[in-house]
Amino acid sequence: MSYERGQIVPLDYERAPFGAPMAPCWFILLVPPQKEAGAAAWARRAGALETWFPTEKAWRFRGGKAAARRNKVEYRRLIAPGYVFVLTDRVPAWDVIRQRSIGRVSGVVSRDGAACAIATDELANMAQVPQRLERMRRAEDERRRFARQAKHPVAGQMARICEGPMSGFMVDVERVHAGIAHWIIKGIRGNCRVDAMERVDG
User: Which of the two residues, 144 and 168, has the higher pLDDT score?
Assistant: First the structure.
């Protein structure tokens, strides 16, 4: 690269690891073995909104296999070693991130040379999620539960069976007791869970 006299060129250290604002999304950093915690902490200090690397509870013996059961200790075992999830609302400068992380970050999961951004709802489908996503998922589950409850069948109204061999059938609800709806259709009586049905209004 050539420069002209008097031209002002910003130095690399003046560039931030996370720059211009953008819609929040997740990226997956590639990190060396055993450096997940250090990379996550560094990314938060550098401006990431949240970081996460999945772990699960496990047990190991202290003092070797011959140790007694009382010497078994709990620890957090990495589920996906070498990966750290990072949430940011600013455009990442990957070259600066690799340089400034001083060996903590070796790259980013990419497709066709472009870093793969992961939407929050995609990440929320994973079995283990960061605290923020867990709250969002709980709120969504609660919303769906209330929506289902609002459509629970009541005695004297029509309802649609949504699960089981009778799924799709419209029935007359005779009574509801202890979470079970008792119904009749063309002289045939039956029952099923209330949450396996939805009320048909109108």
Answer: 168
